[in-house]
Amino acid sequence: MSVPPVSPSSEPVVVTLRDAGPAWRPVSPALVTVRLVVLAVVLVPLLLVCVGLALLLTPWVWLGAGVLVLVGAWAAWVVRRQVSAISWVELDDEIVIRKGRLFRSLVSVPYGRLQYVDIQSGPLARAFGLASCEIHTASPESGGSLPGLPTAEAEALRTRLAARGEAQRAGL
Amino acid sequence: MTDVPPGATAAAPADEDWQRLHPLSPLLRGGVVLLAVLGYAASRVVDRVLPAADGGPSGGAPDEAAVVLEHPLLALAALLLVIAGVATVGWVSWRFSRFRVARGQLELRSGVLYRQHRQVPLERVQAVETTRPLLARLLGLSQVVVQSAGGADSHLTLAYLGAGRAEEVRAHLLDLAGRADERGPGAGAGGGGAPATPSDGAGPARVAGRSRDEGVPVLDVPNGRLFVATLLHPATLVLGLVVLGLLVAAAVTGLGAGVLAGAPALVPVVFGLAVGRVKELLVHGNFALSRTDTALRVRHGLTELRASSVPLHRVQAVEALQPLWWRPFGWWRVRVNVAGVRSDGSDGNDQTTLLPVGTLGDALRVLATLGVRPDDPFVVAALEGDGGEPGWVGPPRAARVLDPWSWRRSGYAVSDTALHLRSGRWSRSAVVVPHARVQSLALEQGPVQARLGLATGRVVSTPGPVSARAAHLRTGDAEAFLALVGARAREARRAVPAAGPRPGGSILPPDPAETVARRGTPLVD
Asked: Rounded mean pLDDT of A94-119?
């Protein structure tokens, strides 16, 4: 194989649901910002409307505004936790992606099963220099998506995955 | 069915030439409409004539009926004109519908005003099946449906061809597609000597190559058994309860007439429940399974006969399942996931059921056809085991909170060639996934599972009815499952680098000891 393994530690990585070894790589913390911005785009106008109504009509609407602030704070906390829970590792034969904290999931996709890899980045993510990497296999449900990679890293990952996929290509 | 289209009289017409469909096909496609129009017209006339014969006054008789009675010749002329119009349109559309196999593509051109040109690359062909709707069956016609990867939109239907011609085209396309798929010579060479079996008397002489295609019969499902099995379903139980409830209510309350008068309100419910059962019967009736060197041939359909091929090398996972209601009879159903085949069965097309209902022996025979050895202790334990067999890893006692009935039985076992999974204590299910067919692996853990120290392992297969899960394992066991199955899948992928039909005709790699005994050519490199 022409592509060297990427895992920084030389000993074999044991794939587990929880343990955070040095091999597990986090996604960019900027993803938190991106998701918070999205959250703000939804919540802030609502909050403004509430504030406006409260000032103009009745102070009772402050209650609604308060609830919105609480929801926003909770969502921000969840976003932070979710993003920090995303981690991934490239092994010799597969890429493993872990997600979720309350509902944990782990998907392990062998390079030989890769059909194609998509790099996607919306305008907001691009502004923060982020892209997401979507991994597709022959099964629509089995792919993994890896959001919030720095664009250069996402491109590099795609190239590496494509090369390894070619080297280890297996039929259906 | 001897009237083959003019362009196709030769046994093997040159592929490059454009060929026409069967001349009767527009009649069949437009025929239903024509029949409906004729029937409607006839009924109107009869309606008008009968009361007239009775001498009774028929109130608001429609005008056109009156016209027909007053000017029969005019009406006849109009009818002829309509028929001539339909015939012309049909003839023109037939003239403009042509297909050919050229440059590795199957092409179909159709339409006069709106031209349509659809082509399917042969290497993308997943399956070719012939279907015979009821009307077509009466005329001895079949349609050939070419399925390619990419969903229902990418299917190409040749409607219609003579039944014999359709089989020829199907065999020919499969041959070409198989060769394209294998990327190597000798696709059909090994199968030339497979014993020919007389087909169901559909025609006398067969073109060479068709006998190979029909394959060796594996089993038939008697329609009587299918009927009973179809009735043994929760839907029928509900149906029976509804009727029973009605009767009891009528008898006890003494409001017989009143209750029975309310019965029509339940008709939609009953109808809804019945439709599913009837559809099951229609789809799986006349079920017959046979196998060729590289594929399984499935023929089924009570009114609409369908024949389809399941290439063995595309089978991704097998499941034998036994609903609770079938247990007294010891019946099983066998389903598979096939790469590139839809499984919704919405149009009565079910290529994923290899045995709608059969005895344990039948199920084992189907499994054996797929290369899953019935004497494998794992297979036996997966089908009938209740837990605790050696080699099986299942959920710990803690899992009884989440799965009070089946936690003892469910679990997984890894053999040399395949991963076995079983679940369900009342309704049993046993899944076999060959190591070489594992797409990817996943672990899942919800909050309750996390508290109990459990996790669910999942083998992701291609879309299909079979799902391969080992639910509620100990977290450590689930991680071991991931590592072990992953490692086996890796070895298997290395052993079989590329897709291709295995001449031995098994979804599992051959046993070293058995390789000699297998017929056919060696593995294609």
From this structure: 88
* Contact assignment for A112 to B493 by CB distance below 8 Å: yes
Q: Sort out which chain B residues have CB atoms less than 8 A from A108's CB and list them.
A: 440-442, 482, 486
Whole-structure pTM value: 0.70
Q: Do A115 and A60 fall within a single domain?
A: no
C-alpha closest to that of B487 among B390, B419, B387: B419
Distance CA B254, CA B258 (A): 9
Helices B63-70, B72-96: axis angle to 10 degrees equals: 110
The reply to whether B388 and B497 lie within a common domain is: yes
Q: Which of residues 74-103 of A touch B (CB under 8 A)?
A: 93-94, 102-103
The DSSP bridge pattern shows strands B288-291 and B105-110 to be: unpaired
How many folded domains does chain A comprise? 2
In chain A, residues 125-154 whose CB comes closer than 8 Å to chain B: 137-144
Q: Are residues A95 and A141 in the same domain?
A: yes
Q: Which residues contact B70 (CB under 8 A, 6 or more apart)?
A: none
- Is A110 in contact with B440 (Cβ distance < 8 A)? yes
Q: What is the pLDDT of residues B469-496, one digit of tens each?
A: 999 999 999 999 999 999 999 888 887 6
DSSP strand E in B149-240: where? 156-162, 216-220
- pLDDT over 70 percentage in chain A: 88
Question: What does the pLDDT look like over B275-289, one tens digit per residue?
Answer: 888 888 888 888 999
Range of the domain at A58: 31-81
- DSSP annotation string for A8-77: SSSSPPP--SS---TTPEEPPTHHHHHHHHHHHHHHHHHHHHHHHHHHHT-TTHHHHHHHHHHHHHHHHH
Q: Domain for residue B164, yes or no?
A: yes
Closest chain A residue to the Cα of B126, Cα to Cα: A172
Q: Are residues A56 and A103 in the same domain?
A: no
Per-residue pLDDT at B115 exceeds 80: no
- State whether residue A16 sits within 8 Å of chain B by CB: yes
Rg (chain B; Cα; Å): 28
Residues B361 and B251 in one domain: no
Q: How many structural domains are present in chain B?
A: 4
Q: Kindly list the residues from chain B whose CB atom is less than 8 angstroms away from the CB atom of residue A102.
A: 446-447
Task: Assign residue A94 the CATH number of its domain.
Answer: 2.30.29.30
Same domain, A75 and A41: yes
C-alpha to C-alpha distance for B275 and B403, rounded to whole angstroms? 32
Question: Looking at the structure, do residues A39 and A91 belong to the same domain, yes or no?
Answer: no
Are residues B405 and B294 located together in one domain of the fold? yes
**B375 and B234, same structural domain?**
no
Judge if B474 and B396 occupy the same domain.
yes
Average pLDDT value over all residues in chain B: 76
**Do B176 and B52 reside in the same domain of the chain?**
no
- On whether both B92 and B105 belong to a single domain, the answer is no
Q: Model confidence over A5-24: pLDDT tens digits?
A: 444 444 566 788 887 777 88
Give a yes or no: residue B339 inside a domain.
yes
Of B440, B455, B499, the CB nearest to A142: B440
Over residues B320-361, the pLDDT tens digits come to: 999 999 999 999 999 998 877 655 544 555 778 899 999 999
Answer whether residue B419 shows pLDDT above 90: yes
Residues B136 and B230 in one domain: no
Q: How far does B227 lie from chain A, in Å, by closest CA? A: 34
| 3-state secondary structure labels for all residues of B344-373 | CCCCCCCCCEEEEEEEHHHHHHHHHHCCCC
Please report the number of interchain residue pairs, chain A to chain B, with beta-carbon separation below 8 angstroms.
101
Spell out which residues of chain B touch residue A112, defining contact as CB-CB under 8 Å.
Answer: 493
Of B96, B121, B144, the residue that ends a domain is B96
Q: Specify if B192 maps to a domain.
A: no
CB contact under 8 A, B498 and A170: yes
